[in-house]
Design brief:
Elements (H helix, E strand, L loop, with lengths): L20 H14 L4 H6 L3 H16 L6 H15 L2 H15 L2 H10 L7 H16 L5 H9 L4 H23 L14
Helix pairs in contact: 3-9, 4-5, 4-6, 4-7, 4-9, 5-6, 7-8, 7-9
């Protein structure tokens, strides 16, 4: 007889109850700005220290001061997540690319194969580097960094590209390992 019980996922972990006031405020801001609390935050909410570490790193890399635009950072997230086949991040960050670019087609291209998208030379170099870091980081050489410099990136920008790519490589693995599922609302955003 088949076992029809649903396997537990990351969202089945109990959130800290009650949530600390700072966390509740952060979740309220998410609802105000996004219309939802992203499931990745809910998944981490079983341990407030882990949630805080995750959100601090995410907010710094994706929203902090950088020579990379927010759209470019989201594009990196999608390319890395596409290579890693991370369902959560392809859906969530694909929606962000659609929203930030105002171009639903670009979001889909990033998810499926960024090489078919109409990208400028700078974006293409950035995404090629993120893809290389994802598939073969030990092979990165000075010539790879030089290509980025020639495309207009500073050494600080290269650090930011690498940091965003590395963060999503880690996040993709966690999301896949615990069967993290995207909020259904992401599927309809910016279409």
């Amino acid at each position: 007889m088949a076992d029809n019980t649903k396997a537990p996922t990351a969202l089945d972990l109990p959130m800290v109850d009650p949530l600390p006031p700072e966390t509740r405020k952060y979740f309220d801001i998410c609802v105000e700005k996004l219309g939802m609390v992203p499931n990745v935050l809910r998944a981490y909410a079983f341990d407030i220290d882990k949630l805080n570490a995750f959100t601090a790193m995410y907010n710094d890399l994706m929203l902090g001061e950088s020579g990379l635009s927010t759209l470019e950072r989201e594009m990196i997230a999608v390319v890395v997540s596409s290579i890693n086949r991370c369902y959560y991040c392809q859906v969530a960050h694909g929606a962000a690319v659609r929203q930030l670019s105002g171009n639903p087609e670009l979001g889909e291209q990033m998810v499926m194969n960024y090489r078919v998208a109409e990208l400028d030379a700078r974006q293409r170099a950035m995404l090629d580097f993120a893809a290389l870091l994802t598939t073969a980081s030990a092979t990165v050489e000075e010539a790879d960094r030089q290509k980025l410099r020639e495309a207009g990136f500073s050494d600080r920008d290269i650090f930011d590209i690498a940091s965003v790519a590395a963060f999503f490589n880690m996040s993709n693995r966690v999301a896949s390992a615990v069967d993290m599922r995207p909020n259904e609302d992401y599927h309809a955003l910016a279409r």
